Amino acid sequence: MSDDAPDSTIRDIADTARWVAFNRALESERPDALFHDRHARRLAGERGAAIARRMPRAATSAWSTIVRTCIFDEIVLRLVNRERAGAVVNLAAGLDTRPYRLALPATLRWVEVDLAPMVAYKEEALAGERPGCTVERVALDLADRAARRQLFARLAGLAERVLVVSEGLLIYLPEEEVTALAADLAAQPSFHWWLIDLRSARLLAYLQKGWNRRLEKAGAAFRFAPQAGADFFRPFGWQALENRSFWAEGERLGRRIPLGWFYRLLAWLIPRRREERLRMSSGVLLGRMQQDALGAPGASVCEFESTAIR
Fold first, then answer.
1. What is the pTM of this model?
2. What's residue 94's pLDDT?
3. Angle (CA) 118 190 101, round 5°
4. 306 CB neighbour count, 10 Å cutoff
């Protein structure tokens, strides 16, 4: 995963991590930054900046990265500091630096899983930096189901209550892979929570039209957005505990979606458009279901909506 040229072409899935890191760098450098990731620009490199400049609808991409980062930060901190999560397993961790920038207890075990080139690049880039907790990096192709199951069985022993994070991962997977991953995670009793982000089927079609031509050649096409939303995961042992709309959270955080005035006008004129927008993108905290409740309808979902939206 070398960074020897500011090529703006996405060559593989790892380049999407550079793109995301550059967006985090832009937020970190604002005078009113919502978070500070001092490693983001170095990790993104010139390639990350070039990709961000050339990708269509770059402003929307940056906005969603910023809002998602804030949502995930808040949930991770709460589960670790208040709900006694003793370990975090970050799947397809990319260039995330939460162990270096969040106030995490030193006793926390944080495990990052990603492809070998990404792990090697990150180890080199962050050499000499000290995280706030114990960090382990595992080089693994998550598509290798046998190796994945073996790893999950080992990581399940790290703590009684483990939080699994897969930020920006599921959208790249075919539905059958998401199904298998959900089942494999649910098979480990200590995996209490699974933090994910979802897009609506309608938004997926929009993203595919705008970006997939560039992403398909790199094996990084957008694929997954279940019609059922978070309820998709119920048959596999997971129910939604929180559903945080990116649109609503962006309003709360002062990071409104580009052209937000237009969407707010539509929401006022056509109420159903507001509901559609709220469900376009969301951060979802899933929790384990009791065995006798698997597949049962009507699980409660705590929906967070900003009171700033009218």
1. 0.86
2. 96
3. 45
4. 16
